[in-house]
Amino acid sequence: xxxxxxxxxxxxxxxxxxxxxxxxxxxxxxxxxxxxxxxxxxxxxxxxxxxxxxxxxxxxxxxxxxxxxxxxxxxxxxxxxxxxxxxxxxxxxxxxxxxxxxxxxxxxxxxxxxxxxxxxxxxxxxxxxxxxxxxxxxxxxxxxxxxxxxxxxxxxxxxxxxxxxxxxxxxxxxxxxxxxxxxxxxxxxxxxxxxxxxxxxxxxxxxxxxxxxxxxxxxxxxxxxxxxxxxxxxxxxxxxxxxxxxxxxxxxxxxxxxxxxxxxxxxxxxxxxxxxxxxxxxxxxxxxxxxxxxxxxxxxxxxxxxxxxxxxxxxxxxxxxxxxxxxxxxxxxxxxxxxxxxxxxxxxxxxxxxxxxxxxxxxxxxxxxxxxxxxxxxxxxxxxxxxxxxxxxxxxxxxxxxxxxxxxxxxxxxxxxxxxxxxxxxxxxxxxxxxxxxxxxxxxxxxxxxxxxxxxxxxxxxxxxxxxxxxxxxxxxxxxxxxxxxxxxxxxxxxxxxxxxxxxxxxxxxxxxxxxxxxxxxxxxxxxxxxxxxxxxxxxxxxxxxxxxxxxxxxxxxxxxx
Amino acid sequence: xxxxxxxxxxxxxxxxxxxxxxxxxxxxxxxxxxxxxxxxxxxxxxxxxxxxxxxxxxxxxxxxxxxxxxxxxxxxxxxxxxxxxxxxxxxxxxxxxxxxxxxxxxxxxxxxxxxxxxxxxxxxxxxxxxxxxxxxxxxxxxxxxxxxxxxxxxxxxxxxxxxxxxxxxxxxxxxxxxxxxxxxxxxxxxxxxxxxxxxxxxxxxxxxxxxxxxxxxxxxxxxxxxxxxxxxxxxxxxxxxxxxxxxxxxxxxxxxxxxxxxxxxxxxxxxxxxxxxxxxxxxxxxxxxxxxxxxxxxxxxxxxxxxxxxxxxxxxxxxxxxxxxxxxxxxxxxxxxxxxxxxxxxxxxxxxxxxxxxxxxxxxxxxxxxxxxxxxxxxxxxxxxxxxxxxxxxxxxxxxxxxxxxxxxxxxxxxxxxxxxxxxxxxxxxxxxxxxxxxxxxxxxxxxxxxxxxxxxxxxxxxxxxxxxxxxxxxxxxxxxxxxxxxxxxxxxxxxxxxxxxxxxxxxxxxxxxxxxxxxxxxxxxxxxxxxxxxxxxxxxxxxxxxxxxxxxxxxxxxxxx
Lengths: 562, 562
Fold this sequence. Notes:
Oligomer: homodimer
Number of domains of chain A: 2
Largest interface: A-B, 75 and 74 residues
Largest sheet of chain A: 6 strands, mixed
Structural class of chain A: alpha/beta
Radius of gyration of chain A: 25 Å
Helix content of chain A: 40-55%
Number of strands of chain A: 22
Number of helices of chain A: 20
CATH architecture of the largest domain in chain A: 3-Layer(aba) Sandwich
């Protein structure tokens, strides 16, 4: 270990220890504060971030340290109504892979502990970009500013740190060397043994358009900490956030004396969409993918045939069941926020809301609230949120992809009763923003095909069920048929909670109950909540369990006789 | 935890602690002694084992506790020249899977620590069958008696124990519950969280004909400890050893009050070969496979398409390179034993022996031994071993499958120079035994197709190379093209050793150097040597790393608001 690296190991020891403890104990931990405040990040940080963002618009993004760009390309439009006009250096898949191959051996030769410390250092340095990153995320994904700050900044970086400590923990399971002495009656034989971590190969991470950083960093950092270079392939319309992060990581690598090509950005163009060429290149060992189920399944099959380990987050259909509540308003306020947050452009957003036809029992009032009243109050809660000028536009954000507006139109034409109409939402700051408030339709369990598919965006269904048991059966069936990334059930009955918990987990679904207040089903907390269960059709990855890191490398032994 | 189980946890704590420590430190550990001696296993154990074996011949195997057999079937022939005449209960795939599904929930509900303790108890009880198991293994696989005892008894059981402690270690990474409190400025929000282990589903383990127990127990026990029932599908010609083990495990389960259907035996017949029907059944979560590359690849593809986690040990081509030695005789004696042991019917047996054309440097004599002399002395070492009446027949054993004799014939007809002819080996105890001593051919690196494929059985190639560097290049190329389960290099030059070690591990091969004396490249030691690197075409499983256990279950969280 060279001196600068041992200093980094010392410097970040307490962070790594604390993060490891939180990851194992599943308690609250956040290394980066989630509030976008100059008090926390430096008085100048907010304005400096805005200045960098404004200064980048209309210009080439020239901060990447990756060599041999063949052209420059960019096609980003802000969902808030303007062209970003940024171009990015385009390296061919061959060049990216060759760069990664050159960078690989010296990185693999470092110890896991050194790699972990270097990666924490890189994250700490890259955190200086959080405010520019927030603007970049807002104006590519359509997220509101605060959410964009949190999702691409502290929350994503906490997930990256989580992957680092998970990977370090896994790699430290085994000793690096042993003297093995086998007794043979009165004599014995001794072998000298060494064990080395060998990464599967170069990682390719396929980013998505809605969470370009949050969904990419876990796979990238799990790969890096286990010794592999990573190539992050951006979505063609959402490059800027990932470009900022990759550039900051490359600068950090260069500053600590390592090859910046350990982390590279792949920029797709209309002529080279990148994913297939990268995944099919010689030397690729792991792939991380976030995106559609159809393409994800193709990737999984290709990888299985080519000995590549593939981690996927595809899509699911997330159900809610409301049987009984302490306070209906508290439950519906929470649910309304979840339905509005980033206009439900989240893999974890609820879609299908099952409510017993007889209504919902409210403990605080001792009343049974009829089904129709529950629906009306849910609609009213959504209306109140979206029409609140202070929080509505920021909560809903903008629609990333115009295809989502088409999808709302198709949903309208299903012929189902419309419980709440979707309308554009005026955004005073960005009058040209592409927006849509939640569309709420009424489904029918006899026609599950209507709602047992992912309707990505602000489209949800309320579905009456005969009873809690019937609702749970529908929820569990949906999990088995469609996969799932979140579930949420409201019941004040402990025995119903237990039976639902058992049934959900048996089906492979994460379970949540009785969310009210400032905690939402769409969100998962690094170190405490696993994101994805790896147990349904929604994907085989779980951020960050042991399988997510342990599958990325082999431990290979050397035996030396005498 | 019920009282009997907590007693088992106490009873086996020291075994589990010691095995876990050895597995992590990679030091020597063996829970069951490998010598088939009445002094170690009880004075009557050897004769009792023989009596049970003799008493079983020609009769139905009626010790299994699995219900709803539809027919009885058996087709085993001893490679030593007689018919076993044993029939086994045949349960249809549907019945086996239904039995496993019924047994699953209560097993999954136990804690990992309880499961581990129960499994150690089962192994301890099943170890009482070691001597019968040795005879059963000898007379199905063709292994010599001592090897049969070790491979199906202590060595296999140590691998099972290793899988148990690996699975327990992995599952204990995360707390089972947490109180999660997120600070929110002057207030906070608290969620109650629980985390449960959810096995992927029922395990199907596909056994092989040469190591029916050794290659099956790791996957079976890794699945069991992580909460899943397992169905062990025997090779149609090698049922008896696995039947003994499954019956003993079922009896143990029943005795401790658990459902014996947690472990079941699937017996293939000419009408129902079992594998495809089992793997395709609803509820299968993991598959462990040992066998041919072609069928293994088909299985891997099927599993990827159906969300099943598949662990494979397919086949590789194992190379040896001899550059320099301390003592040539010591090296060649070791190598001759490896080539003869169980007539090379081992996935880890060496096949291609690269020797520099200029010869091998011997340090003890200070001489360069010419290539031709090395070859002659290797042939002489093999001759000496096979013609040694005391150890030859027991070392070579018998040929499990007559197709191996055909393969020897095909190898003879390659047109390559025959360095040593394969002949039958007289076995005084079993004059009808199907035997063959090693065939040694001379290969040529310009015609790699001759030897860059697995020639399963007593078929090896000596291939002259221009230099150590050329030999290493051929070895590494072979690893990349064919996959590998073992490599062995002889060099007394520390810098060559280092460069070979680096190159082998970079290629994904396990490395071994300078084996002499009673330690052979064919063997891997539980707790210390990983079997399989999961990094070459030879398979994606490694006994027993974290990935081998962590991929078998999810940790799924429950979040409860207030």
